[in-house]
Fold these 2 entries.
Entry 1:
Amino acid sequence: MQLFSIRTRPLNVCAPMVRYSKLPFRELVRRYNCDIVYTPMILADVFAASNHARESEFSTNLLDDPVVIQFAASNGVDLANAAELVAPYVSAIDINCGCPQKWAIQEKIGSHLMSDPETVRDMIRMTKARVQVPCSIKIRIHKDLRETVEFVKRALSVGVDFITVHGRTRRQKSTEPVSLEGMKLVKEVSTVPVLANGDVFSLEDVNKIVEATGVDGTMSARGILENPALFAGYNETPWECIEDYVDLALSYGTNAFIFHHHLMFMLEKTMSNAEQRTFNSLTTVPSIIDHLEEHYDLNIMRKRKERAEQAKIRLV
Ligand SMILES: Cc1cc2nc3c(=O)[nH]c(=O)nc-3n(C[C@H](O)[C@H](O)[C@H](O)COP(=O)(O)O)c2cc1C
């Protein structure tokens, strides 16, 4: 919350992304000017019930700060139980009110909640009664924006601490443009900080959205997956950033599937179709590393030496 009050520019935020916004990626985007980073959506009831889920779904460290953990829940008890377990390790608890997938709506989580503001109000109230950390919501807009205003007002009435608005309705596809009008309205009726989400692929997009809506910051998902350095002003992923990612993923440990996906997102624009086909045939971490060393001048040992030198300079 302090970041919101002392900010001298709009805050740069990395979106919650299932599978992807995990610890190594969070550390990566922070190196490139990201102020706040979200975990992927985690099911609150499973998280509270299972030690295995807690270990596999959430890991953190002292560098992972500020971090917002995002839960999907259908009721206040599940959310507050999960929040209580994780509160000492996070900067805020976020409620996912935007996931449009069919299974989520059937479970009465995600974007289903956009039609159930009373339950969202209960969730915020119960969570805030049990933990001291801020509680936020990530919402979509309604077709009728008056409903969105009502939704936001109810959340504000129980002390929601900040709001992220993805400027699309739950039925809109990500290829459709975001509603700047919807984002602006949420900002206008809110007495707490508001982040705008949707179609942030460059700093020009950030400026355009902030200028049009007056929000306190912007959040990127697809854009930052493709180019984790976008908030640092790069229009394409710099090679340095790809090396950083490889180094972080290897240091923390990764599975080949996620490792491959991240690199594919980052390299997609620079690869020819033939290169993409070759890259897609790689299924293990060593084969991916070999490929990058052979074709892209990846040099992990050089990278590690550079980082060790930088750490020494910081110590001195
Ligand atoms: C791979 C991927 C995973 C996502 N996972 C989540 C999630 O866990 N929680 C959530 O609230 N939104 C999730 N989203 C939605 C994004 O956070 C964001 O709201 C949406 O993609 C619009 O932003 P963009 O235009 O910057 O992509 C995900 C999006 C993508 C592309």
Entry 2:
Amino acid sequence: MALLMDTRFLLRKVKDLRSLTPKRNRVKEKWAATHPKYPPTSLALQHFDATYSVQLGKMWPSVRVALLSERKYGALLNNFSHDAVLADLQEKGCRDFINDADTEAQPCLEQVSEEESGDVPVKKSDSDGQQLSPPQLSPNIPQLSPNIKCVVFPRGDITRFKPARPDTYRLLGYYLLDAASVLPCLALNVQEGHNVLDLCAAPGGKTLALLQTQAIRFLCVNDTSVSRTLRLRKVLQSYVPKEFLTDENIRITSFDGTRWGDIERNSFDRALVDVPCTTDRHSLMEDDNNIFSKTRTGERRRLPQVQLALLLAGIEATCPGGEIMYSTCTLSQIQNLSVVEQAIHLAREKHGIHLEVVDLQPFTHMFRKTFHFAPDLHLGGNNSSRVKVSCIFCGH
Ligand SMILES: C[S@@+](CC[C@H](N)C(=O)[O-])C[C@H]1O[C@@H](n2cnc3c(N)ncnc32)[C@H](O)[C@@H]1O
């Protein structure tokens, strides 16, 4: 311990001495050695400027500003906590945007776009269902779980939430996440007694939201990264009472999700496939661990391939009549619509599985007071085989 402290002291000293030396060459050398000429955040912006200006046209400048602005959090309330957190946050000016959703509203045509993620729910037809070619839109409105509550400060108010405090049972009262991350969990339409698969689950924000429904019979939580799965376990321990985290209720694994079809088929009523992606906002903000860094170029290029394999695995794992939610936090069409389109095609051609795409427009319309959504997007390669889907864009 003493040695460690001395070492730390010495390190600090060296730092101090360096800061006293005249700036000249030393500063230049250090800069050159540690900072790439083009940091990953700049490479990400260059890439988005090139691709999204074409994909989004005149919407890109405002979407760009939104991506570069401070992220706005939501606080997902923890029903397992004993503290009266909601009243406390309401007193501070927050509102539960799910409770405020306009469930009576009918979708209208005017819609504007803002930011990040593409979320696409897909329904698996009965095995003897008719072949759907081209893929058909299934117009249904998910029943919103009354138990998922997520509060936000009013539009334009970027007050930060204080870290959640533990209650007398050491459970935290809320989990902070991008408010839009709750939308795929709501759209998944989990019903009483369902078996649910969360294929890429860590660090666990959406897993927690799914557990808040208190409707799930069995939840299977997976993430290929062992370290991130460890984080997820810690999150669950901080929010969910031990008696809920039994083998009968939940299974936590660290498998490669792309191989899930080899492990378990036709087993789940619902599957959430929240894939790794270019995490657009993060890639513009943080140089550390950035997918646009030169060392991760190969990984970035392989993303659509991995996403497709994960979605296909989620489809195989779901039983006939079940629903699959594909979600990302990127605007990229290649990582959103193209992946869903290819998955539908391959599921039919290779596995004989027929899918219909659920139209999310009525769903997004319910939340138009809180989020900006993309205008209609189309699934399908040509005019004659178009199926509409809606992509949800994170942020306010
Ligand atoms: C967008 S994050 C998931 C976020 C999570 N759903 C949440 O709400 O906190 C994507 C996750 O996919 C995981 N992942 C990447 N490749 C995977 C694979 N082949 N199988 C399973 N998980 C994978 C990553 O480790 C990462 O944790």
